[in-house]
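As a representative case, the lines below give one protein's residues and fold tokens.
***
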Amino acid sequence: MAAQTLDELVNEHYGTKGLLDRILTAARDAGIVLDEARSDDFSPVSEFHIGGRRATIDLAKMAQLCVGDKVLDIGSGLGGPARTLVEQFDVQVEGIDLTHEFCVVANELTRMTGLSNQAKFFQGDALSLPRDPNTYDVVWTQQSCMNIEDKRQMLSEVCRVLKPGGTYVFQEVLAGDQDGPIKLPVPWAGKVDMSFLWSPDAIRNLILRVGLVDAIWKNATNQYMEEYRILAAKTGDSAQPPIMGGHLLLGKQAGLMRKNVVENLSLGLISVYQGVFKKL
């Protein structure tokens, strides 16, 4: 049997069948009236990155989003950050994700929350963005690059589709200041050949080399650490698991995955960085 490609591994890891049904069932169990749902009703599952919805808003403020900005969200997942950006900052968002089911769920949740006029999602490859040069005011990535091996090509594409004066803003899990293999599984990888964590210096230097200029460079590890530790404990609580949360996406290993993230952060094996860069 031929070895699986990285794209196949990523789709297998994230693309669990029946995801939309699980989310809608959980929403009903939580007392959410689906016809009146708001984006933040789904944030516990659709913004499962470190820091959740709060981190999305923090990042958007750092980027100084303006009303009407055209935003490309690379690795848009279930569309949670995009919907938050639309609701809170009145921007237009296109999301691209490698996982087909994510795009289906993202578009449906966006329709249900009445935001389809400002946020749309499609399947695509971050290494070959199907858009013309100089298209977007903002390119956004939020914990989506850990599965991307060819970061140089991805960042070159970011620079290509940004308008002159445009902004690249990100929150990513990077390597920590301690050497050693990370403890698996984690939310972005069940196998070592799915996780590509570069050092902060290597990532920053590469972003500069593709032609962007840094405005903000921030180690945000401690900013969200305690909040994520509490979330991990709740996710792993078999006696009283949360109704709506990352376990709907990550499955039975969700608690272990988040526990491992906490341990990896605590040991300095991984870190969380935020950055804002400009295209001249």
Q: What stands out?
A: The first strand starts at residue 70 and ends at 74.
